[in-house]
Structures are given as C-alpha cells and as structure tokens.
Design goal:
With about 140 residues, the protein is α+β, with helices and mostly antiparallel strands. The chain has helices spanning about 5-20, 60-70, 90-100, 115-120, 125-130, and strands spanning about 30-35, 40-45, 75-80, 105-110, 110-115. The protein has a 5-stranded mixed β-sheet. Strand 3 (about 75-80), helix 3 and strand 4 (about 105-110) form a beta-alpha-beta unit. The longest helix is centred in the N-terminal third of the chain and has 12 residues, at about 5-20. The chain starts with 6 loop residues before the first helix and ends in a 6-residue tail after the last helix. The relative contact order is 0.16. Belongs to the cytidine and deoxycytidylate deaminase family. This is Cytidine deaminase. It comes from Nocardioides oceani. Its EC number is 3.5.4.5.
Length: about 140
C-alpha cells in the first residue's frame, strides 16, 4: 500500500498546511496531510490558544476535514514540523488516527512508512467498546 502513494507530494501538502499554523505561544508549527480511501487529500495545521491544554493539533484539523468532506477512512498520513521534517503524532493524535484510519493506515514516520499497528501497538478502539462488560 505504501508504494502507490506519492509520499513526497503528501509531505509537501503537510508542509504547506504547516505554513498556516497559528502557534504564537510555543512557536512550534505543525502540518498534517492524509489521503482517504476514495482518494481525497486532506490537510490540517495546529491552532494554539492561551489555554495550552485546549490547543488543536494538526491531526484534529485533518480529521475534522475528513468528516466535513464526507467521512471515510484515512489510508496514508504524514505530519511535519516547522522545518518540514517528518515527526511523530502525539499519543492523543495516534488514537485519533487509529479511529479514523484503523490498523491498515500507513504513516510516514522519521524511520519510514509504518502501519498504525506499529505506530500505536495494542490500540484501544471501537471494537473494544462492543465487548461484554464494557458498558
């Protein structure tokens, strides 16, 4: 699956999204880009505010765009810093990506393309909520 995507173009889309980040407090700008199963390219950037705990990650913006434009599953994803270098999503965002791409989501990492099963091993997801005793 990783061979059928133009990772350089996806990284450039994330870099362009990063240029629109609003990071006046930390100065740490982040951009994200992903591709859906039906071929849409989605982007997001981080948006800070004075209450750091409620800052929106780039991945949040991307997933919001996923749902606004028709939903579906992410198949490929990359996240970059202010220099355009590939970075890893934070833990909260890894969970968000799992729920919107699943185990098969391919993620560009600083060590190359990895499936979500390696990015978030032993993930908790919607299937776990359906198991007896969890409600």
């Amino acid at each position: 699956m990783a061979d059928d995507i133009d990772w350089a173009a996806l990284q450039e889309a994330a870099t362009e999204a990063m240029r629109h980040a609003y990071a006046p407090y930390s100065g740490y700008r982040v951009g994200a880009a992903g591709v859906t199963a039906d071929g849409r390219t989605l982007v997001g950037c981080n948006v800070e505010n004075a209450g750091y705990g409620v800052t929106l990650c780039a991945e949040c913006g991307l997933v919001s765009q996923l749902h606004i434009t028709g939903g579906g599953l992410l198949t490929h994803f990359v996240c970059v810093n202010g220099d355009g270098a590939v970075i890893m999503p934070c833990g909260r965002c890894r969970q968000l990506l799992w729920e919107n791409g699943g185990a098969a989501l391919q993620v560009m990492t600083p060590l190359g393309v990895r499936p979500m099963t390696e990015v978030l091993p032993q993930a908790f997801g919607p299937d776990d909520l359906a198991k007896e005793g969890t409600r």
